[in-house]
TrEMBL record:
GO CC, alphabetical: BLOC-1 complex; transport vesicle
Species of the source: Pitta sordida (Hooded pitta)
Origin superkingdom: Eukaryota
Protein name: Biogenesis of lysosome-related organelles complex 1 subunit 5
Keyword Lyase: no
Coiled coil: 81-159
UniProt keywords, alphabetically: Coiled coil
The family this protein is said to belong to: Belongs to the BLOC1S5 family.
InterPro entries xrefs: Bloc1s5 (IPR017243)
PANTHER family, per database record: BIOGENESIS OF LYSOSOME-RELATED ORGANELLES COMPLEX 1 SUBUNIT 5 (PTHR31784)
Length: 166
């Protein structure tokens, strides 16, 4: 306790001196507040009327824009949008017609291809029947030729058998 009391008394004046030095060197609030008051006073006295005129001009420009320019722009936009909408609808109708024609053309081509395929299939079936008939004819001819040859060879064997007995 004694040490604190002995140490506390000489330190107190030093802390006050440090606080004073700190406020003089680093605390700029009083100077800044004086500058702010000067700036506000100058602004209000010298620039106030000029700024008021600028604000009034700005207000009139905004009013004119809201009352005259904006309605003109809206009307022009409506007119142009209506025209654009009509053009888009016409283009859409044209596209639908082109698509319908293309669909009809493709369907017609598909029908033609299908008819050609059916015709080819029918022709192929007819060809195969014809080939089957020709094969049957050739087989029959072959069978008859084989019978004739058998008969001929039998006759030749009989004929040769006559000569063998000699």
């Amino acid at each position: 306790d004694r040490r604190r009391e002995a140490a506390g008394s000489p330190i107190q004046p030093v802390i006050k001196d440090v606080g004073e030095i700190y406020s003089r060197l680093l605390d700029h609030r009083p100077v800044i507040q004086g500058e702010i008051r000067y700036f506000v006073k100058e602004f209000e006295e010298k620039r106030g009327l000029r700024e008021l005129r600028v604000l009034e001009n700005l207000k009139s420009t905004v009013f004119e824009t809201n009352e005259r320019v904006l309605p003109k722009c809206e009307q022009a936009m409506r007119d142009n949008l209506n025209e654009t909408l009509k053009r888009l609808q016409a283009a859409n109708d044209m596209i639908h017609r082109v698509q319908e024609k293309e669909y009809e053309t493709r369907k017609l081509q598909a029908d033609k291809v299908m008819a050609r395929e059916e015709k080819c299939i029918a022709h192929w079936e007819e060809f195969m029947k014809e080939q089957e008939n020709k094969r049957a004819e050739v087989d029959e001819e072959h069978r008859k030729a084989m019978e004739r040859l058998k008969e001929q060879y039998s006759a030749m064997e009989k004929e040769m058998a006559k000569y063998v007995s000699f």
